[in-house]
Specification:
The protein contains eight helices and no strands. It has 125 residues and is mostly helical.
Length: 125
């Protein structure tokens, strides 16, 4: 593995075939979209996907990180985990609930007052 983070395709291919797991892990990380941009990642996506099944736990972990970063780069506005999805749903529900209460108390205030007057009048009879 070379010291620079900017690998050429040939360097990446050579390092991914290294028997040393540290060199393979560094090569995968160098192909990460957060390091090298999407171009190198997309060019070797099939090879990098295969690294998720490497015998080395270190290599598999780095490969999964690379794909997670790529997914987050493509889908920045979308939640990427179950917890984030749940939080987004709850945030939306809370916002819509509070907006509904604001609408009832501000826009319909005269209407609500009229309904209360009508009830009072009915109760007085």
């Amino acid at each position: 593995m070379r010291n620079d983070h900017h690998l050429t395709s040939e360097q990446l291919l050579a390092d991914l075939q290294s028997p040393d797991e540290t060199i393979r892990a560094k090569a995968i990380h160098a192909a990460c979209p957060c390091e090298a941009g999407m171009e190198l990642f997309e060019k070797h996506i099939d090879l990098l996907a295969g690294m998720k099944k490497d015998p080395s736990p270190l290599v598999r972990t780095v490969a999964l990180h690379v794909f997670q970063d790529a997914f987050e780069g493509i889908c920045d506005s979308f939640p990427t985990s179950r917890a984030e999805t749940t939080n987004e749903i709850l945030r939306t529900r809370r916002q819509s609930r509070f907006k509904r209460e604001e609408v009832e108390t501000t826009e319909n205030k005269p209407l609500l007052e009229n309904k209360r007057r009508v009830r009072r009048l009915r109760n007085q009879r």
